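Narrative of accomplishments. A recurring question from our advisory board has been how the design workflow behaves on a single, concrete structure rather than in aggregate. To address it, we present the structure tokens for one chain from the evaluation set, followed by the sequence designed for it. No filtering or post-editing was applied between the two.
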């Protein structure tokens, strides 16, 4: 179905000095609501009728950093597939180092180094050429905070899908800046809905599974060495339900024979998805072993995350600028997660 689109001002926003320790940023942290208003006040504003007509007709420009990685490439493909009337892929992307151009559909994307030169100037130039720009970040955990600082300093709205980094600092800095952003470790909208349902159950029925034994088994590609953030979030809800599970006891399946072996001895992962999958099983057993519950979500490939990321970009674009009339804009809310995206009824993919 056609995505619900809200009007927003597509004018490029004002950029800020290139260092994060500026008086401007300190002021925004001290008073983010006032700084948000000042950002709006400094933009050139066209007549309202012209702004609305432009916004309704304009597709959302999306820059994907780093589209040379597997997740970034999946998002870039999803942007192109969504249709040029909805959004389009900006022909420039950042990576750790400059690389040969990458062609996505009919778009040749120049890959620039985020470490060399002046990436802030590149962002400012792209904003001028592509009003209403939204940046997607799927880079490396070690780059999360530095990249977010770059986006904040140049008032660049962004969707952060990269996990890791100092998450508390990330959320604090972005919230204080007033720069619109969606930050979430899990972009798959159906998985997010499952997480939300578990959290809701835990909130409404705390201790409902007290005494039950929980086992957690999760399988990912061998390159993922840590326990998934999704499993951690689900376990938190189960613990609120009374399970008392230590996430360190989760079984991480990374060997291929066990992954492709059929249940009950293996995970049943299709062989073609060994290099990109997420299979999670949560089993609850009563103290006397007469009752059991099993919750399972199995994801093959990356399309669920890529499509959810594009939905997040379209959601974020509706929160930018003078044309935004939602309650979030009235309340000066600028930091969002995927629960906010779900609640907006902007999830247009199957």
């Amino acid at each position: 179905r056609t995505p619900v689109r809200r009007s927003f001002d597509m004018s490029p926003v004002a950029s800020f000095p290139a260092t994060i320790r500026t008086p401007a940023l300190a002021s925004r942290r001290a008073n983010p609501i006032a700084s948000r208003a000042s950002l709006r006040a400094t933009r050139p504003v066209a007549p309202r009728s012209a702004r609305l007509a432009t916004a309704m007709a304009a597709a959302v420009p999306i820059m994907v950093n780093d589209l040379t990685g597997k997740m970034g490439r999946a998002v870039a493909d999803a942007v192109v597939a969504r249709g040029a009337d909805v959004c389009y892929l900006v022909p420039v992307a950042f990576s750790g180092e400059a690389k040969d151009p990458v062609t996505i559909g009919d778009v040749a994307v120049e890959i620039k180094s985020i470490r060399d030169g002046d990436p802030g100037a590149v962002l400012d130039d792209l904003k001028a050429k592509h009003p209403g720009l939204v940046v997607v970040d799927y880079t490396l955990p070690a780059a999360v905070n530095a990249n977010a600082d770059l986006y904040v300093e140049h008032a660049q709205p962004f969707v952060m899908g990269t996990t890791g980094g100092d998450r508390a600092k990330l959320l604090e800095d972005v919230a204080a800046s007033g720069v619109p952003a969606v930050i979430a470790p899990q972009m798959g909208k159906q998985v997010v809905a499952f997480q939300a349902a578990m959290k809701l159950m835990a909130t409404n029925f705390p201790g409902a599974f007290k005494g039950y034994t929980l086992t957690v088994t999760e399988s990912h590609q061998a390159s993922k060495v840590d326990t998934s953030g999704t499993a951690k979030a689900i376990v938190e809800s189960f613990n609120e339900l009374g399970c008392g599970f230590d996430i360190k006891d989760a079984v991480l399946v990374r060997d291929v024979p066990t992954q492709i072996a059929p249940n009950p001895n293996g995970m049943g992962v299709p062989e073609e998805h060994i290099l990109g999958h997420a299979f999670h099983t949560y089993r609850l057993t009563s103290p006397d072993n007469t009752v059991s519950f099993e919750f399972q979500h199995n994801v093959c490939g990356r399309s669920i995350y890529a499509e959810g990321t594009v939905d997040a970009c379209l959601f974020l674009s509706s929160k930018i600028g003078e044309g935004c009339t939602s309650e979030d804009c009235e309340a000066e809310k600028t930091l969002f997660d995927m629960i906010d995206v779900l609640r907006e009824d902007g999830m247009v993919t199957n």
